[in-house]
UniProtKB/TrEMBL annotation:
<keyword id="KW-0808">Transferase</keyword>
<dbReference type="GO" id="GO:0016832">
    <property type="term" value="F:aldehyde-lyase activity"/>
</dbReference>
<dbReference type="GO" id="GO:0009073">
    <property type="term" value="P:aromatic amino acid family biosynthetic process"/>
</dbReference>
<feature type="domain" description="DAHP synthetase I/KDSA">
    <location>
        <begin position="17"/>
        <end position="261"/>
    </location>
</feature>
<protein>
    <submittedName>
        <fullName>3-deoxy-7-phosphoheptulonate synthase</fullName>
        <ecNumber>2.5.1.54</ecNumber>
    </submittedName>
</protein>
<dbReference type="GO" id="GO:0003849">
    <property type="term" value="F:3-deoxy-7-phosphoheptulonate synthase activity"/>
</dbReference>
Length: 263
């Protein structure tokens, strides 16, 4: 179902004002984690003003350490919904299991499967049964074939609104948090009709690398970007070093519009 042979036309996923696929560039932005109403409202205000269409925010955080902040759960979903409504942004949040999926569907417009759950096949099947677009992140060490088969799990249950997300893979390089595989963009376009977006924040782990990787992704034909933005990155409970502040995000959006028009 995911392959070009199954469908030649590019799949276009529309979520409120965001269009993933075709000749569009969709921008998702927001904090790694929902921390408070004030934090998300501030982020949403700048994201809307800069031209973003989708607000991200984690309410369930699958952290490497069990002692790290695990997310605000349902309260976080409520905050995300409130900020999305206030600023006219669509919303997306990560789901980590069937209970969080069921709850998230009551609050957000799109759900996200994180890198650590790319091969959680029961979760993929559950997401395949809901009527919400799904962002499927590439597994930390997943091949493109494995990633597409994970998308196949979702589609085989009836949900054809799948957006693939390249977020960097694990290599021997340790300077960056992960290694962004930009070649995944044209390869996916060749193999599949599904839209593909890039997450330059988790790919690099560094706010100063987000701009260049975003531009590289646009030049490579990406359908959208998911960028971490925090009103005060130095105070973030999660992923502060890779988060842009509102001024950096606003300036980057101006540059990205020029790059997108040039390609
Ligand atoms: C995230 O987007 O907040 C996240 C945890 O990303 P990943 O699953 O790519 O690590
Ligand atoms: Mn994060």
């Amino acid at each position: 179902l995911v392959s070009r042979e199954a469908r030649d036309e590019p799949t276009v996923v529309r979520v409120k004002e965001a269009i993933f696929g075709g000749d569009h560039l969709a921008i998702i932005a927001g904090p790694c984690a929902v921390e408070s109403l004030e934090q998300v409202m501030k982020a949403a205000k700048y994201i809307k003003a800069a031209g973003g269409q989708v607000l991200r925010g984690g309410a369930y955080k699958p952290r490497t350490s069990p002692y790290a902040f695990q997310g605000m759960e349902e309260k976080g979903l409520e905050i995300l919904k409130q900020a999305g409504n206030e600023y006219g942004l669509a919303t997306v949040t990560e789901v980590i299991d069937e209970p969080s999926l069921e709850l998230a569907c009551d609050y957000v417009d799109m759900v996200q499967i994180g890198t650590r759950n790319m091969q959680n096949f029961r979760l993929l099947k559950a997401v395949g049964k809901v009527r919400k677009p799904v962002i499927l992140k590439r597994g930390l060490s997943a091949t493109i074939e494995e990633w597409l088969m994970a998308a196949e799990y979702i589609m085989s249950e009836g949900n054809d609104q799948v957006i693939l997300c390249e977020r960097g893979i694990r290599t021997f390089e340790t300077y960056t948090r992960n290694t962004l595989d930009l070649s995944a963009i044209p390869v996916i376009k060749d193999l599949s009709h599904l839209p593909i977006i890039v997450d330059p924040s988790h790919a690099t782990g560094s706010a100063k690398l987000v701009g260049s990787m975003s531009k590289g992704a646009i030049a490579s034909g990406v359908d959208g970007l998911i960028i971490e933005v925090h009103p005060e990155p130095c105070k973030a409970l999660c992923d502060g070093p890779q988060s842009l502040d509102p001024q950096q995000f606003t300036a980057l959006m101006e540059e990205l519009k020029r790059v997108a028009n040039a390609v």
